[in-house]
Structures are given as structure tokens and as C-alpha cells.
Amino acid sequence: MVQQVTKGIKISVDTTFEGTFYKDHKIHFAFGYSITIENQSKDSVQLTTRFWEIKDALNNKEIVEGEGVIGKKPVLKPGESHSYNSGCLLSSPFGAMKGHYNMVNFTSTRKFKVLIPSFKLSAPFALN
Fold first, then answer.
1. How far apart are CA 94 and CA 96, in angstroms?
2. What is the CB-side half-sphere exposure of residue 104 using CA atoms within 13 A?
3. For residue 119, what is the domain's CATH number?
4. 47-62 b/e with 16+ CB inside 10 Å = b?
5. Whole-prediction pTM
């Protein structure tokens, strides 16, 4: 598990390898990740958008941007947390993801970025 705190918001990430499958005559490696966003600050905040940079071992890069996370824009009061699961497909058995969430502080009305720490994606069968 990797963790990072930015401006009182703690991000924890856990990953799993989900398996391989073929699509359009090409092998794909499926990974899942669980993220917990914990508000350790004294203010209520809301996650508004997300930004991901996904790379695989073949140096393929994908950028994913969008509203909220899995269709939600969670509001977190001090001490509250929000967890969700998602996933991605890679063209190789290794890769990494990193990114950030854009959030708004309800007390100051200021927008701010919360960094998502870089985390590795690896298929257990490919590890030495």
C-alpha cells in the first residue's frame, strides 16, 4: 500500500492483478486498485475532478481526466473518508499510475490539488 498526505487529505492506494485476456488479437493485463481518501484537515472538502497518468512497461502512456470518481463527487467532513475501487488495462505485465484530485475547501472556497502517489502495477507471474 502507498500513502500520501497533501493539505490534510490522505490518499491510500492498494492494487491487485485481475488477470489477462485477449481482445482484438492482443493480450491485455487487467489491474484493480482500491483508493481511500481521508480528510484529516479541519475543513469540509469536496472532490470535483480527477487526473491520471497511466504508463506501462512498453512506454505507452494514457491520460485520463474527468468529473469525480466512479460517478461521485464526495464531500468529506473532517475525519470522514471515501473509498472506491476501479481498474485499468495495460499492454504489459508492469506499469504505474499517478495523478491528482482537484478539490474545493468549503470554508475558504479555495480550489486545491491533492496528489495521488505513484503506485506500481505488476502481475505476480512476471516478478522474479
1. 7
2. 9
3. 2.60.40.1470
4. bebbebbbbbbeeeee
5. 0.92
